[in-house]
Amino acid sequence: MSLTTAYDSKELVAGCIRQDRLCQERLYKQYKDAMYTLCKRLLNDDELAADALQEGFIEVFRSIATFREEATLGAWIKTIVLRRALKINSRYAMYEELKPNRDDRKIDWDSSLTGALLAKAIAALPAGCRQVFVLIEVEGYSHRETAALIGISEGTSKSQLFHAKKLLRDYLKPITN
Amino acid sequence: MKQEQNDPIWLKISADLDLQYEESGRVNLEQALHTLPVYTAPESAWSNIVEGLPKKVVVRQLTFRKVMGIAAILIIMIGAFLTWQHIATKEVPVQYAKVEQSKLDLHLISDTSTQVFADLKNAVCEVRPGYCKSEEFQETEKNYQDLLEAQQQVLKKAAMYDDDAQVEQLLLHIENEKKQIEQEVIAQIN
User: For the residues of B20-31, what is the DSSP string, one character each?
Assistant: First the structure.
């Protein structure tokens, strides 16, 4: 266990409320990589991901006095950073109107699929459907939550997820077969 | 959103969307999702966050050692400043201070000195009236009176200042000069 994770989250929160730089740094170090990974998966750009991370943590430290233990500290931080990333992504995300194709509705995930391959395929997705896929499949949000977070309808969320999966299937097919 | 959920047409569309695709090998996807790479946040991010935060210095409790350290530094600085001021101005700051006991003694000696010299003069005039009226004796008497006057002036000034080694030295010097003159007069009597 690292020194930072061993730190009690209550102590960290209290320190951050006092604007103790040492506590702020400890809290940041505890969550930075997980939050940066989330931003990178959503935004598929190092610089934009870093921007989302920085803006998100500045907001975290500014509003930490409002943190109530209804959720875990990690979940609270994740919500703030995620909203920042989605706000940045909203400049690039487009949601194509998809026409259902009854003949093309089978998706088969090959056993040779790896995390690295999937990450590459996710990075190749258009911004709109990529964020829906990441939120639902990677982060575990429901369609309803995803729709509320992004500001789209639940139906758009469902169709974008399907679209993302078809694109992933097409991207991965020549590699995995 | 709520309106969408209750609308029967929407419910039909939603159900249709759910049935839109058939997914197989889901376990392979989930395994891949669990092994997605994790990225490391850039080193520069923290310094950028700090720049964006309000500047506030955390006031930590001062320990006894820190307080003593600060006090020692202050004393050294004040001492250095006063020494520099003393050297730079070459003037002793005027202060009201008590006159030291040794200075009081000197003052008493100075008061009695007038009587001492008067006694010596009477004796020398009685024994050697010629010498008593000579220019040499008159010069000696004048020198003695000048020394007494100087001694009075120095004592007067010294009463206004704190202890000063130079003043002490000057007073002792005057006293020695006076004693030397007294010895010379005594030598004439003998």
Answer: S-EEE-HHHHHH
- Asked if the Cβ–Cβ distance from A109 to B28 is below 8 Å, we say yes
pLDDT tens digit sequence for B51-99: 888 776 555 556 777 888 888 999 999 988 888 887 776 554 444 444 4
Average pLDDT over every residue of A70-99: 85
What is the pTM assigned to this prediction?
0.57
On whether both B105 and B185 belong to a single domain, the answer is: yes
Give the count of beta carbons closer than 10 Å to the beta carbon of residue A104: 11
Name every chain A residue with its beta carbon within 8 A of the beta carbon of B42.
36, 46, 50
Of B91, B111, B139, which marks where a domain is finished? B91
A113 contacts B20? CB cut-off 8 A? no
Q: What is the pLDDT of residue B122?
A: 87
pLDDT tens figures, A2-14? 444 446 788 889 9
* Domains defined for chain A, CATH in brackets: 3-89 (1.10.1740.10), 115-176 (1.10.10.10)
Domain with B130 in it: 101-189
Asked if residue B172 is part of any domain, the answer here is yes
In this structure, is residue B153 part of a structural domain?
A: yes
